[in-house]
Specification:
The chain is mainly α and about 90 residues long. The protein is built from five helices and no strands.
């Protein structure tokens, strides 16, 4: 269940990062005003931290080590089905 929540955080940070970029000026990040660059970098750091949590989860770590992506996908799906909050959504 914590794997599902961690993956949901990754998706949420990806969406937030994409929205943040799309709502900003049409210039490279390095040309943005410094406060906006700082907010964007913090958002990206949070995304990377969330990705690391997923990658370090025992199920995902084993799948990554063994290159068993299908097993990882099944484990994520199974965890989502077992999560009562997911069933209610």
């Amino acid at each position: 269940m914590d794997l599902v929540r961690a993956q949901q955080r990754v998706w949420a940070y990806e969406a937030a990062s994409r929205d943040f970029v799309l709502s900003g000026p049409d210039t490279p990040v390095g040309c943005w005003p410094l406060p906006r660059q700082t907010r964007y970098r913090r958002l990206r750091e949070s995304l990377e931290q969330a990705r690391r949590q997923v990658e370090q989860h025992p199920v995902m770590a084993a799948a990554i080590a063994d290159r068993r992506w299908a097993a990882a996908a099944r484990a994520l799906a199974r965890a989502a089905q077992d999560d009562p909050q997911q069933a209610a959504a």
